[in-house]
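It is worth pausing here to work through a concrete case rather than discussing structure prediction in the abstract. The textbook approach is simple: state the sequence, then state the predicted structure, then interpret. We follow exactly that order.
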Amino acid sequence: MERPVSQGVEILNFGGTIGDVDTIRLRDIFGQLSIRGRPRIVCNFYEVEDLSLAALGLFIRTRRECALSGGDLVVSQPSPEAEEIFRSYDVLTKIPVYENDSQAVAHF
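Step two, the predicted structure:
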């Protein structure tokens, strides 16, 4: 997972399947970003093929935790597969989704 930073916003690039085992590592990464205070995170899902329910729950919880710290978590460039999963589980009402990283960074 690549981790470029743009204008103080951490951009996480995801690909393949984000499964239950991945949530352990992601929880650690999100925790490290939260320690810095006011986490501003863009999750780029351009190459995501599948997400587990545990992963979806983690992204939703992390967004809520970021908001409590004055930050936020948003998604950019969801693949067609990721977008379909978001629609199926009503994630689009819980996490802002943007067409590209530039728009997502502008959110902040």
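Step three, interpretation. Residues 20-35 form the longest helix (16 residues). Residues 23 and 55 are 6 Å apart (CA to CA).
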